[in-house]
């Protein structure tokens, strides 16, 4: 009886496999070199907003990085003021930085992983998940069939809302006849997502070409997205004409029709995700908030020049009346006619405007009317870019789309953004409770850049012609993932083959949520079945 020695491949700097064996005393054993399939379907991961590593290429901030290796690599942004943020976080001077940290848990070397884009995306959010995905999709040489993450999904019900279908053994078996090299595609998330989609198009073409040069048969890719990356992928597939080179798409926690939280963050900064939790979580949340932009000045100075993040604003599909102003018995809401660009985003000079023009440029031009007008016109151009992008992807999805979204009472999101108002003590009595002109109230304190705005509200008739009121943001009001509300996560329902609701926070959806991970792996196997209609199908 002879023993077999199974030798798994290693990979050189170009991704070519080789096998090594140590010479030992002669015996009757055989060395068996296991070979990867030569038919290949690259999987390309597209991160969310702020999830790509960037570097400033010119100006005062030249060389400064937005680097997501770990919490420590982001600490330099703590306390970095609005003026420096506007200087550095400008889409015109930022570009993708490819030198981020990558996982050490795959058989692939660092150079190859970085060539495949892993160093472009934030390790702290995605690094180890990319390794998990690679190992789950390329486990030809480990553990055996019974230890396969794909095999463990055979017959398992994940309780998807739409298209629930447990994997069959023959479906998993087919997936094992293909290799799935995992790529990533970072992008300048400050820039127009239409430009980012061109980077994804190039990455798809490069992945296919690269695999062919390695001697593999390769025609199509599978795209996996997180958050805003889903919008990038939709534009790439449906507007740039890449649908035929994409076998299918898996979207995770995508703000399909926008998120009202973007309005709130532009006005008041990033909310503390640790509120209502233990002391450690509150501190961590406060630090993260300050790093990302802790107030309206820091956020407005950056977002007013950056179409990418503003393309996460609610689209007309989001619906009317999501911005609310409530004081006593008075109720106001916008948009009313399905045009948030005209009714909210480009309204100038109101205390409730999306963009307060005195916060656009923090460099001291407050009394320079010409400069303020110029900045406002630039902002309006950005909003036009936002509108054009929204229009181009409206209801546009790849025909083989699968999606999961977060929706839970544990992770409330801003479905609506509500300003709650109160009058100063005695004001209602002095003004005779006469109705005030809330929408045209005058902001009293230009230094208010948080959750509160204090205004002087005109009232008509009588001897008291005005009253002071303070407006403050209400808390999140809709189940979601803490960022994307249910309505937006659920929006792909009619365009998706499968859709699953999970309980997860937004940022760590791939890193920490096992149901989301299982759904994604299953969706990739399901998408792979479409290969039978292509030239890469095996003969019957």
Output the keywords:
elongated; 17 helices; 30% helix; six-stranded parallel sheet; alpha/beta; 4 domains; 540 residues; Rossmann fold; 21 strands
Tell me briefly what this model is.
With 540 residues, the chain is α/β, with parallel strands linked by helices. The protein has 17 helices and 21 strands.
Would you spell out the secondary-structure blueprint of this structure?
Layout: E1 4-7, E2 10-11, E3 17-18, E4 30-33, E5 43-46, E6 54-56, E7 65-66, H1 71-74, H2 82-88, E8 94-96, H3 110-115, H4 123-137, H5 169-175, E9 182-184, H6 193-213, E10 221-226, H7 229-238, E11 246-252, H8 261-268, H9 279-293, H10 296-303, H11 307-310, E12 323-327, E13 330-334, H12 340-345, H13 369-393, E14 401-406, E15 408-413, E16 417-423, H14 427-430, E17 442-443, E18 452-458, E19 466-473, E20 478-480, H15 486-489, E21 498-502, H16 509-512, H17 514-528
Parallel strand pairs: 1-4, 5-9, 5-10, 10-11, 11-14, 12-16, 14-21
Antiparallel strand pairs: 2-3, 6-7, 6-8, 12-13, 15-20, 16-19, 17-18, 18-19
Helix pairs in contact: 2-10, 6-7, 8-10
Report the radius of gyration as a whole number of Å.
26 Å
- Low-confidence segments, given as residue ranges, are none
Strand content bin: 15-25%
Structural class: alpha/beta
Helix content: 25-40%
Provide a count of the helices: 17
Cross-sheet strand order for the largest sheet: 9-5-10-11-14-21
Count of structural domains? 4
Kindly report how far apart the N and C termini lie: 36 Å
In the CATH hierarchy, the third-tier topology of the largest domain is known as Rossmann fold
Mean pLDDT across all residues, rounded? 91
- Kindly provide the name of the CATH class of the largest domain: Alpha Beta
Give me the oligomer status.
single chain
Number of strands: 21
Main sheet summary = 6 strands, parallel
User: What is the CATH architecture descriptor of the largest domain?
Assistant: 3-Layer(aba) Sandwich
What is the molecular shape?
elongated
């Amino acid at each position: 009886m002879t023993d077999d020695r199974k030798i798994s491949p290693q990979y050189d700097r170009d991704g070519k496999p080789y096998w090594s064996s140590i010479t030992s005393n002669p015996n009757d054993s055989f060395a068996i070199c296991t070979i990867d399939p030569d038919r290949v379907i690259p999987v390309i991961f597209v991160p969310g907003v702020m999830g790509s590593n960037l570097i400033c290429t010119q100006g005062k901030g030249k060389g400064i990085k937005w680097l997501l290796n770990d919490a420590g690599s982001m600490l330099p942004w703590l306390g970095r003021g609005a003026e420096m943020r506007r200087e550095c976080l400008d889409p015109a001077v930022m570009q993708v930085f490819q030198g981020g940290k990558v996982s050490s848990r795959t058989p692939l070397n660092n150079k190859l992983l970085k060539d495949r884009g892993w160093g472009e995306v934030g390790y702290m959010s995605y690094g180890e998940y990319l390794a998990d995905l690679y190992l789950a999709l390329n486990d030809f040489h480990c553990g055996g069939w019974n230890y396969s993450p794909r095999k463990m999904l055979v017959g398992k019900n994940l309780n998807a809302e739409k298209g629930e279908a447990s994997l069959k053994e023959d479906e998993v078996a087919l997936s094992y006849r293909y290799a799935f090299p995992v790529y990533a595609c970072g992008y300048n998330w400050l820039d127009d997502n239409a430009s980012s989609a061109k980077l994804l198009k190039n990455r798809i073409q490069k992945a296919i070409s690269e695999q062919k040069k390695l001697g593999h048969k390769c025609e199509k890719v599978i795209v996996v997205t997180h958050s805003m990356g889903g919008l990038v992928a939709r534009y790439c597939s449906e507007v740039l004409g890449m649908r035929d080179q994409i076998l299918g798409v898996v979207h995770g926690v995508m703000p399909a029709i926008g998120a009202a939280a973007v309005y709130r963050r532009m006005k008041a900064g990033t909310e503390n995700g640790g509120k209502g939790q233990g002391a450690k979580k509150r501190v961590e949340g406060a630090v993260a908030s300050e790093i990302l932009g802790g107030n309206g000045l820091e956020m407005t100075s950056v977002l007013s020049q950056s179409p990418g993040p503003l393309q996460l604003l609610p689209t007309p599909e989001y619906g009317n009346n999501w911005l609310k102003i409530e004081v006593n018995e008075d109720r106001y809401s916008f948009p009313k006619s399905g045009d948030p660009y005209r009714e909210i985003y480009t309204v100038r000079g109101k205390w409730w405007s999306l963009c307060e023009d005195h916060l656009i440029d923090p460099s001291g031009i407050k009394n320079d009317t010409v400069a303020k007008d110029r900045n406002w016109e630039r902002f309006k151009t950005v909003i036009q870019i936002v509108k054009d992008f929204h229009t181009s992807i409206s209801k546009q999805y790849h025909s083989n789309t699968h999606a999961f979204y977060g929706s839970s009472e544990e992770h409330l999101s801003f479905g609506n953004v509500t300003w709650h108002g109160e009058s100063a003590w005695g004001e209602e009595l002095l003004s005779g409770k006469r109705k005030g002109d809330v929408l045209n109230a005058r902001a009293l304190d230009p230094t208010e850049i948080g959750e509160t705005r204090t205004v002087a509200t005109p009232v008509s008739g009588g001897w008291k012609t005005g009253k002071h009121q303070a407006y403050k943001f209400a808390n999140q009001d809709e189940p979601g993932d803490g960022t994307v509300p249910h309505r937006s996560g659920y929006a792909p329902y009619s365009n998706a083959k499968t859709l699953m609701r999970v309980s997860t926070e937004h940022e760590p959806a791939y890193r920490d949520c096992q149901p989301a991970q299982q759904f994604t792996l299953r969706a990739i196997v399901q998408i792979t079945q479409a290969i039978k209609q292509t030239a890469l199908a095996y003969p019957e």
